Amino acid sequence: MTYENLDAKLVNALLGDGRASLRSLAEDLNVSVTTISNHLNDLEEQGIIDGYTPKVDYDELGYDVTAIIQLKVEGNALADVTENLRSHDQMISVYEVTGDYDIIAVGKFADTDGMNRGIKTLLNDPDIKESNTSVVLNAASEHEQFELDIDEN
């Protein structure tokens, strides 16, 4: 098994169970615990694996309103507006994008009143020139990750 294949298999195994022990990963991948530990450390140092977090179902916690917020921003203020959005706890994704808008942010809110307050607070920023907000009716797929392809040659 090549170094890259082992890394891909290790990532895939962790996607299946992020709490797996080094020993169980080693057994599943048929290598030593030391090999797993070394590869895992390398993946973390390279920034390929950036922490281990639970998958949280925000709907179950009462944050069942998802808003997609598109913003047109004054050109030189893009970094400031992006950083401001990132600092809001309920913004789960913030993207600088091409197209009609400069930023797309995804936020989770407990109710539409909370969403309305959050968006109005954002729109007080004079660097935001235009906004468009969509409320998600049904999340067909959310926060999905995918397994890496493994070259078996």
Defining key terms:
153 residues; alpha+beta; 5 helices; 37% helix
Please outline what is shown here.
The protein is α+β, with helices and mostly antiparallel strands and about 150 residues long.
Terminal-residue CA separation: 9 Å
Let me know the largest β-sheet. 4 strands, antiparallel
Element pattern in H and E:
HHHEHEEHE
The total of beta strands comes to 4
**Rg result:** 20 Å
Pick out the low-confidence regions: none
**Residues in helix, %:** 25-40%
Class from helix and strand fractions:
alpha+beta
Record the strand order, biggest sheet. 2-3-1-4
Number of continuous helical runs: 5
Strand content: 15-25%
The mean pLDDT is: 92
Overall outline: elongated
Task: Characterize the structure shown.
- 37% of the residues lie in helices and 20% in strands.
- With 153 residues, the protein is an alpha+beta fold.
- A four-stranded antiparallel β-sheet has the order 2-3-1-4, covered by helices on one side.
- It is elongated.
What's the layout of helices and strands?
Layout: H1 3-16, H2 22-29, H3 33-45, E1 65-73, H4 78-87, E2 91-96, E3 103-109, H5 112-123, E4 128-135
Antiparallel strand pairs: 1-3, 1-4, 2-3
